[in-house]
Amino acid sequence: MSTSVKQVLDLIKSEGIEVVDFRFMDFPGLWQHFSVPAREVDGDSFENGLGFDGSSIRGWQAINESDMLVKPVPGTEFIDPFLQHKTLNIICDICDPVTGEDYPKDPRHVARKAENYLKNSGIGDIAYLGPEAEFFIFDDARFDQNEHEGYYFLDSVEGRWNSGREENHDESGYSHNLAYKPRYKEGYFPCPPTDKFQDLRSEMMLTLESIGVPIECQHHEVATGGQAEIDFRFAPLVEMGDQLLKYKYVIKNVANKNGKTVTFMPKPLWNDNGSGMHTHLSIWKGDTNLFAGDGYAGMSEMAMHAIGGVLKHAPAILAFSNPTTNSYKRLVPGFEAPVNLAYSNRNRSAAVRIPMYSTSPKSKRFEFRCPDPSCNPYLAMTAILMGAMDGIENKIDPGQPLDKDIYDLPPEELAKVPQTPGSLRSALEALEADHDFLLKGDVFTEDVIETWISYKIANEVEAVESRPHPWEFAMYYDI
Question: How far is residue 380 from each of residues 57, 111, 240, measured CA to CA in Å?
Fold first, then answer.
């Protein structure tokens, strides 16, 4: 049941809230905020919103039309578990102060339109999504690049590269290394003392639960150097976007409080597994899971068409679900990354996997394994849903499943399997060529697509392409 404005105002009084913090998502995918004294918040704050400078938000307004409004959304509020002064955080929608209309470049608005489009399409009532956002926990992260130097330095008490380091100086000055550091690609599920972040992840998990984000499990991930995953229960599209932002906020701040730092970069470590955001999808009508059936892996014909749509449009979808230049350093063979656009049951080397943990119709879904946690969750999950819906509407055949180990296929057979784009530039070019499916129901607009492409090319693709890479010196300095 949704929370009313009155309930939020009553909560502010009953909990002795001192500060109300208004939060919204910028275009590339970072949470932004500003705060007001709690006494300033009343019914008018919810009905008419509060003003801010939209020209200072990346990818949004021009300086001559900068005024924008945030409108807080009842039901999204939570008491901040980290701040000194008792603060109520509340997620907001963005509106135009002149027309009063929702702002087309507000990522949350795009996701809200996708939910409405699904309901109006007759396909189903609700889409449930379940992303699994992985991350790294580091002890030290330093980086810089200017006209004459460029470097990054990462370190972790768990890093296998520290197996020979002198550590833990005792009172006599003697140094000793206690070992127990996960091997490269062998960090999945080790117990302490190899897993050194059990308590930290548990604190993250319990903090998330305390603010209303339901958690299913937490565990160490495959890579060395503190890779982790905390999974939460599936939810409708917009709600899941909200929860992912709360998730990142809590994980970063719990780490920071404990003298650690977290990154959701897809590939911070070379030569070990990167961090993905495998995303599960199912579509329901009432209490019926429309993806359950008697076909391949217990899936319905509708589900198979949805898979066909996601695979067909995957190169364009990746412009939103894998939206950084670093994303394509993860999408390379040999690191459990899904570089081949195929589907299978159980096979984790396929871009689309159909989980087989349960035979219950309620559990039937597919998992799109390409996305990573650098994405703007509202835009990424909306693009995935729109690809699935296009597949359903046009009855797109996903072809035959690929139940073999894709990485062991002979070259002539592997050549027949479509590949993910090799770079962000390629993904953006795919989006430019294939985005009509995103425009249905006015979910995305041409302006949103054009702005996304131009912003990414100018601020990220060209910024990386124009700078020398440290490894280029190793390869070319002496030529």
Answer: 19, 9, 12
Q: Which 8-state DSSP code applies to residue 340?
A: B
pLDDT in tens, 179-233: 899 999 988 889 999 999 999 999 999 999 999 999 999 999 999 999 999 998 9
10 Å CB burial of residue 215 (0-12, 13-18, 19+) is middle
Closest CA to 347 of 412, 418, 406, 417: 406
Cα of 118 vs its chain's centroid, Å: 22
Given a contact cutoff of 8 angstroms between Cβ atoms, the answer to whether 282 and 365 are in contact is yes
Alpha-carbon distance of 446 to 463, in angstroms, equals 24
At residue 241's C-alpha, the angle toward residues 240 and 244, to 5°, is 85
- pTM reported for the whole predicted model: 0.94
- Whether 115 sits among the annotated catalytic residues: the reply is no
Structure tokens at 52: 């801010």
CA 378 remoteness from chain centre: 9
229 flagged as catalytic: yes
Q: Which of 80, 106, 367, 460 is catalytic?
A: 367
